[in-house]
Amino acid sequence: MNELELKYGCNPNQKPSKIFMEDGSELPVTVLNGRPGYINFLDAFNSWQLVTELKAATGLPAAASFKHVSPAGAAVATELSDTLKKIYFVDDLELTPIASAYAKARGADRMSSYGDWVALSDTCDKATALLLQREVSDGIIAPDYTDEALEILKSKRKGTYNVVKMNTEYVPAAIEHKQVYGITFEQGRNDLKIDADMLKNIVTENKTLTEEAKRDLIIALITLKYTQSNSVCYAKDGQAIGVGAGQQSRIHCTRLAGNKADIWYLRQNPKVLALPFRDDIRRPDRDNTIDVYISDDYEDVLADGIWEQFFKTKPEPLTREEKKAWLATFSGVSLGSDAFFPFGDNIERAKRSGVEFIAQPGGSIRDDNVIDTCNKYGMTMAFTGIRLFHH
Fold first, then answer.
1. Are residues 258 and 190 in the same domain?
2. Catalytic residues, which ones?
């Protein structure tokens, strides 16, 4: 099959719609269940590239959680702590490596991952399917599925869950085309290989770059390669923990992603872990409630009596002072940027979210200011010399 008709394009009024191979060759995907749409396939093909590159760069199973053609999270398989298992709502499951990778990818920003598209570098197994079965998700792309996993996924969303199998032998053309306003654009495919060699040009006084930091910087940079620009990515423990996508200014990317990283860390605070949720509260409602609890507006919400809808007993607020003290213990975070930092204010904001390692292209007329700011905090920064814009 060299073409697949879709229900509609980005919006219901955009018809007709299809995906096809211009050279008449076979499509490299097989739809095993459901009817994926235009945006689903945009997410599928971008996320597939991301996870296959993560697997190639790290040697570890990789997963991504995509929304609106940008990753909400991406991760490689590492052992999860009991705390992370709890905040990702997987402490009751037996996790395989690929299931752990997806738990981390979805756990980075659970609110944004609601209704996500999933990408796996490895065969989807029963453990991953069981994890997915209870989450709100639109579909999945993977190189293969075990029989048990496929049956579980086919039962999801009343039998309409989108399941796509990718041909791992497929090699895309070296030249890409797309149309905007009836005009065709052409460019060479971005086949840049991202690995530790890109991190050798360390420009700060501190030259320390641990193996864990190298791994996390590689994860951040590969994630940025498939994130709508401008974008930055905070990473820690083998996963993205904050992605700031599609902002017009660099500092807004850094703030947005930094706020997400802060929320990820605040979710691990003992007060958050001990919240007395009612037994009948669904996971998405827990995510939303935790987000409100962490916010500065929570005391106003408590005053309104809304807490009774979610909690067995009225929880004590997490005060601003407590949040500040907890975030002061945040450390070991890596930060990647898809283009140079034009001002030191990005470094100042990154410092607040525990950043110790940075990778960015360099090339700003204010590089000296950015380097000086890193030196002030003892950070390690590498200039990659490579921009990673994605549109």
1. yes
2. 67-68, 230, 391
The answer, yes or no, to whether residue 11 has pLDDT greater than 80, is: yes
Q: How far apart are CA 289 and CA 276, in angstroms?
A: 12
Please tell me the distance from the alpha carbon of residue 262 to that of residue 228, in angstroms, as a whole number.
Answer: 21
- Bridge partners for 118 per DSSP: 65, 140
pLDDT value at residue 203: 98
Which parts of 167-285 are beta strand (E)?
A: 175-180, 183-188, 231-236, 239-245
Q: How far is CA 9 from CA 15, 34, 137, 156, 227, in A?
A: 6, 16, 19, 24, 21
Q: Is residue 102 part of a domain?
A: yes
Instruction: Give the number of other Cβ atoms within 10 Å of residue 136's Cβ.
Output: 14
Q: What pTM does this model have? A: 0.96
In this structure, are 115 and 153 located in the same domain?
yes
Q: Tell me if 388 is assigned to some domain.
A: no
**CATH at residue 339:** 3.40.140.20
Range of the domain at 104: 3-171
Number of domains, the chain: 3
- Determine phi and psi for 39, rounding to 5 degrees: -70, -35
| Residues 225 and 277 reside in one and the same domain | no
Are 309 and 349 found together in one domain?
no
Largest CA distance in the chain: 64
Ramachandran category for residue 377: left, alpha or beta (phi over 0 → left; psi -120 to 50 → alpha): alpha
pLDDT in tens, 108-142: 999 999 999 999 999 999 999 999 999 999 999 99
Q: Is residue 16 part of a domain?
A: yes
pLDDT tens, residue by residue, 257-282: 999 999 999 999 999 999 999 999 99
Question: Contact, 82 vs 118, CB < 8 A?
Answer: no
Is-cis flag, bond preceding 230, omega within 30? Answer: yes
Last-in-domain residue among 115, 150, 171? 171
pLDDT score at 298: 76
In a domain, 28, yes or no: yes
Q: Are residues 34 and 160 in the same domain?
A: yes
Find tokens 């292209």 and name the residue: 361
